[in-house]
Specification:
Elements lengths: L13 E5 L2 E6 L4 E5 L1 H11 L4 H12 L5 H11 L23 H7 L2 H20 L16 H29 L5 E7 L2 E7 L8 H30 L7 H20 L8 H10 L4 H16 L13 H44 L3 H9 L2 H27 L1
Antiparallel strand pairs: 1-2, 2-3, 4-5
Length: about 400
Amino acid sequence: MLSATSRITIPPFSQRADGDDVIIGNPERNCFLAVPPDAAALLRWLADGQTVGEAIAQYEQQYAANPDVEEFLASLEEAGFLDNSPRQDTGATTRGHFSGISVTAARRVCSWPVAGVGALVVIAGLFACVTQPCIVPGPNALVFQHDQLGLAIGVTLTTLITVFFHELAHLIAARAADVPSRMGIGTRLWVLVAETDMSGIWLASRSQRCVAFLAGAALDAVMASGLLLVVFAATRTWIALDTNTLALVRATIFVVFTRLLWQLYLFLPTDVYYVLITLFGCKNLMRDTRAYLLNQLARAAPRIRQTDQSDVPAHEMRVVRWFALVWLGGRMVAFASLFLITLPVLAGYLAMLGRGVSGDEQALRPLLEGPPLVILAVAIQSFGLVAWLRSLVFNRRSV
């Protein structure tokens, strides 16, 4: 029980007005929350050294209401904002990766002239596709008729390079907003993905947030367009490319295309998803959508505990209702592909591996002689499934 003379130790935090709310952030704990302006003011008074009684008196004078300081601090502790709460160990620090990139240099990279050059490249790439549609690669671009191992290694390397630059684009755009960020590996369901932790971007303006979220996809579009222009020039014999190089370029274009398509999977926290919640002013669309769906299910199953969503603004609830259809449809398709395609394929390869380990040398031949990209994809998918299952177990234990 807090006394009126108690002084609360509040860690250093930043704040920024965002619509009707205020975003408060504790960068050291990688925790950012949306709170009402009166709550942000109360927190600021406590951080300035006022006693609980002094802060309550000032709150009553300014807002004509009596705040529940103890409940407010408990909610901040539960969210991980206060020092005596469990730390959100995401690996993010106030320094971040590539901290040598200055804010000035990052802003030059994210300037309108650079964006204009990129737009011209994309327009030229689209023009080339319309002029000569055959330069657009399909899935068969990943089916190599010769030098399979060499080309598979080449595609793997170009994929890693383009993924690195995709994440670097996010990082530089965040740096332009004076926000530190770090690159890492995560999962979206059971799919391994590269990701850039730039949680501090929530303290930036909405336009800066959208730029940071879209930077990776924008660079992907520029890279794909540039490579399409290379293929276009080769088909017009303006430049000479050997067969292997042309196959590698086409395969890389297709990989970048699939990465752009991935951003449209709005039922997962992709770059486009974050842009949408920024534009619609939603604080946590995924969490609110899951709570909404559980509340609908609770009507038929009273044992399910309902979540009070009365604090969710009306305009956000409208977004939640239509996004619930996207979330449900996307998850249904994803899990159908998992159980009907991914798991049977993995089970088949594991069965071959098991027979090979048991002494059946013939069983290992498809693994040793199969297309390298298929084997690599199976291995990556297996790691993704293990990471996803591990996260489910860890989250269950932490509840």
